TrEMBL record:
UniProt keyword list: Signal
Lineage of producing organism: Bacteria, Pseudomonadati, Bacteroidota, Sphingobacteriia, Sphingobacteriales
Key word Electron transport present: no
Record bears the keyword Signal: yes
Protein name (record): Fibronectin type-III domain-containing protein
UniProt-listed Gene3D superfamilies: Immunoglobulins (2.60.40.10)
InterPro entries membership: FN3_sf, Ig-like_fold
Signal sequence, start to end: 1-21
Length: 232
């Protein structure tokens, strides 16, 4: 009787073992890719080395350093006039991209690997794709806006400092206009500011929107993105 019970138990265990599914973990386990360093087009530079395709377009040879552990890269380019963003994937640390002439752009690289689920984003650089007939270039849209998009912050004596970074190929930024308020399309708060910051009055538990218009010495302007933040 004991022998029969033992055989039955072994049989049940064998059936249970056969019934188990081999669930494998398909998550990549390789080393994560490291960050690439951007090379060309240079930061805040006028790009004049593109191959002219037409009066309105040229091909730019983007270059960056190969990232350790990476086997592909996403190159993301933003038209700073229209806000249009394009991304393409390449396997080498370079890419030829056709762009509009007389237009400012920003770009960055995301390093990727098929052996890792992690990615690495480079710095973001800005440049101006040159064109014919331009004597003075418009400033780049202000960036590094603080408070940043979606940020929740605390005020000091019901005041918050808005700050940003301005840049211009011609180095002739004259002033800034700041738009600020509780509307998603903020209204003019202060104009002709000559420093890259301004203090604003705020109310706790309120959402605000702001943007910066950059103006140069000959009247060219550029507009930043609209930034939304919340005060505790």
């Amino acid at each position: 009787m004991k022998k029969l019970l033992f055989v039955s138990l072994v049989f049940i265990l064998l059936l249970a073992g056969c019934g188990k599914k081999d669930v494998s973990d398909n998550t990549p386990t390789g080393l994560p890719p490291l960050t690439s360093t951007l090379v060309f087009p240079a930061q805040n530079a006028l790009c004049i080395s593109g191959s002219v395709i037409s009066a309105g377009q040229s091909s730019i040879a983007f270059k960056w350093t190969a990232a350790e552990n990476a086997d592909s890269y996403d190159i993301t380019i933003k038209n700073l006039l229209t806000g249009l963003i394009t991304t393409q994937t390449v396997n080498q640390p370079q890419a030829d991209v056709v762009l509009l002439r007389n237009t400012p752009y920003s770009w960055f690289i995301t390093s990727k690997s098929t052996k890792s689920s992690s990615t690495a984003k480079s710095d973001v650089w800005k440049f101006y794709n040159s064109g014919s007939g331009v004597i003075a270039y418009a400033p780049f849209p202000a960036d590094n806006l603080i408070p940043a998009l979606g940020q929740t912050i605390s005020s000091t004596n019901n005041k918050v400092t808005l700050s940003w970074t301005g840049s211009d190929i011609d180095n002739d930024i004259a002033s800034y206009d700041v738009y600020f308020g509780t509307l998603s399309v903020p209204t003019l708060y202060k104009k002709d500011i000559t420093t890259a910051s301004v203090d604003v009055s705020v109310t706790p538990a309120t959402k605000y929107y702001w943007k910066v218009i950059t103006k140069d010495a000959v009247g060219n302007t550029s507009e930043s993105d609209v930034i939304q933040f919340t005060v505790n």
